[in-house]
Write a structure and sequence with these properties.
The protein has about 220 residues and is an alpha/beta fold. A six-stranded mixed beta sheet has the order 2-1-3-4-12-11. Strands 5, 6, 7, 8, 9 and 10 form a six-stranded mixed beta sheet that branches. Strand 9 and strand 10 form a beta hairpin. Helix 1 crosses helix 6. The longest helix is centred in the N-terminal third of the chain and has 14 residues. The mean pLDDT is about 95. It binds glutamine (GLN). The site of glutamine has 13 residues, from helix 2, helix 4 and strand 8.
Length: about 220
């Protein structure tokens, strides 16, 4: 059984990242896993899960999401016990120590990763490509924040677009995989979706050919 929890879609659902849960459920189900996927709203306690999904959102709602996660207080221990958090854009920003929102106010983050986000010189909007362990990940970014990691590794190297800072994108720790890329990123990049399932289940997946592979190759050809 694979359990997936999408956190706070009413706050972090602006950029279509809810599709990450659909892609995970579809590809896991196709390999024979029973999948339980649910979404919880701000203020609801976090249920146990193998994968927690955080999506992108606007500055105000992302502050609400950070406050709700800190109030709940259980995400760090769930990660310490093996859960994986996949966080996109605002979801990535709120997992750091702090993030700056429009107007220059610094908001407190969840502190699950060693990262700080501040307003960048300009808003970064457009297609993006990164490499993760030598493989391409395609997506779309739209953010005003720049993120500086402390001691932790990024998810990938920027080939096109901006990511955290023009050079690297996201974060990669044992329990948190983060990126600035929307798309939804796990629907656009079937190999990355499978890597998330393999990390969450601890099992290797067999191949699963679908139209998603053709779309991934077509996007890569157009973007590189
Ligand atoms: N509000 C954040 C920013 O602009 C995150 C945006 C997003 O999630 N796409 O930096």
């Amino acid at each position: 059984m694979l359990s997936i929890v999408t956190l706070y879609p009413e706050a972090l659902g602006t950029y279509g990242d809810g599709g990450n849960a659909l892609a995970l459920a579809h590809r896991a189900h196709a390999r024979g896993y029973r999948v339980e996927s649910l979404a919880i709203s701000l203020g609801s306690p976090l249920p146990a899960a193998d994968i927690y999904l955080l999506g992108g959102g606007e500055d105000g709602p992302q502050r609400q999401a950070a406050d709700a996660l800190r109030d709940d207080g259980s995400l760090a221990s769930r990660v310490a016990h093996g859960a994986l958090v996949v966080a996109v854009c605002a979801g990535l920003q709120i997992l750091g120590q702090s993030f700056e929102v429009a107007g220059g106010r610094i908001a407190e983050g969840v502190g699950l990763i060693d990262a700080e986000t501040r307003r960048g010189a300009q808003r970064r909007v457009g297609n993006a490509v990164i490499t993760v362990d030598g493989r391409y990940v395609v997506g779309f970014e739209n953010h005003g924040g720049d993120t500086q990691l402390g001691g932790e590794a990024p998810l990938g190297q920027v080939v096109r677009g901006y990511g955290n800072d023009g050079a690297v994108d996201g974060v990669h720790t044992e329990g948190v995989w983060g990126t600035y890329l929307h798309g939804p990123v796990l629907a656009l990049n079937p190999w990355l979706c499978d890597a998330v399932i393999e990390r969450a289940t601890g099992e290797s997946l067999g191949p699963y050919a679908s139209v998603a592979d053709d779309l991934y190759q077509a996007r890569l050809a157009a973007l590189l």
